[in-house]
């Protein structure tokens, strides 16, 4: 089956490749810190989807905490 036609549990499709995105481990870097998180990403172009609630919630809190150090 073609990846573009595969059913995607998340419902998200990559805008660049039109492929269904998949959940997987991502290495996020900010300042001097590295963080392993599970996010949705395109298996073809590797673009990552960071949901708005995560970007404005947990990630914002971590960012503020790192900048205060």
Ends distance: 50 Å
Helical region count? 2
Given as residue ranges, the uncertain stretches (5+ residues, pLDDT < 50) are 1-5
The percent of residues in helical segments reads: 10-25%
Strand order of the largest sheet: 1-2-3
CATH C-level category: Alpha Beta
Cα-based radius of gyration, to the nearest Å: 14 Å
Query: Pairing-aware structural class of the strands and helices?
Result: alpha+beta
**At CATH's second level, what is the architecture?**
Roll
- What is the string of helix and strand elements? EEEHH
Shape field? elongated
Mean pLDDT: 79
DSSP strand count: 3
CATH topology title: Ubiquitin-like (UB roll)
Major pleated sheet: 3 strands, antiparallel
| Strand content range | 25-35%
Number of self-contained structural domains: 1
Provide structural commentary:
This protein has a single domain, classed as Roll (Ubiquitin-like (UB roll)). Helices cover 23% and strands 29% of the residues. It has 2 helices and 3 strands, in the order βββαα. It has helices at residues 52-56, 58-68; strands at 22-30, 33-41, 48-49. Strands 1-2-3 form a 3-stranded antiparallel beta sheet, with no helix packed on it. Strand 2 and strand 3 form a beta hairpin. The protein is elongated and about 40 Å long.
What tags apply to this protein structure?
3-stranded antiparallel sheet, 29% strand, 69 residues, elongated, Ubiquitin-like (UB roll), 3 strands, disordered N terminus, alpha+beta
